[in-house]
Amino acid sequence: MVWVVVVLIRGGTDGWAPYPFLNPATGYGLVFTYVIGLTVLTIVTAAVVWLMSRLQLLKVQEPLSALARE
Fold it and tell me: Transmembrane stretches, by residue range (predicted)?
């Protein structure tokens, strides 16, 4: 989120943004919508991966230190 704030400040001062969806010239409402959408997508993806690991659908390798003790 800090990165988004920095990009918006820079975009507002010099008119440059690394991605078109973060360009403040398109309007801050649209930029806010994109940022919220990306945040939700990231949280949902993390939750799905976490849930898959809890349900043993995703194999998590043991650390090498645990294997060395055996």
Answer: 28-51
Both tokens assigned to 43: 């949280």
Amino acid at site 45: T
Query: Distance of alpha carbon 67 from its chain centroid, rounded?
Result: 33
Q: What pLDDT does 65 receive? A: 66
pTM beyond 0.85: the answer is: no
Is residue 11 within 8 A of residue 17, CB to CB? The reply is yes
Q: Which domain holds residue 26?
A: 2-68
Give how many domains the chain has, as a whole number. Answer: 1
Q: Between 27 and 43, name the one with better pLDDT.
A: 43
Give the HSE-up count for residue 58: Cα atoms under 13 Å, Cβ half-sphere: 10
Task: Count Cβ atoms below 10 Å from residue 22 Cβ, excluding itself.
Answer: 19
CA distance 30 to 39: 14
